[in-house]
Specification:
It is built from two helices and five strands; from the N terminus they run βαββαββ. By secondary structure, it is an alpha+beta fold. Strand 2 and strand 3 form a beta hairpin.
Amino acid sequence: METIKIAGVKRNAFGKKESKAVRKEGMVPCVIYGNGETIHFAVETRSLRPLIYTPQSYLVEFDIDGKKEVDRKSGSAG
């Protein structure tokens, strides 16, 4: 399985207003849940293109302010 690396920036402000501000900057607000913690972060819109517009499955490695997080993309809609 291929790995895609995506860099992100941790977010400390949450909510509708803050997410809208993140989107205005050309970023996508994201959340990873698991292992008893929730990580709020933002990534550049263009960095998600290879992940979203493909029928492939990937292992995704997020680099959020220097800390590595791993998530899986199934490649199926739903």
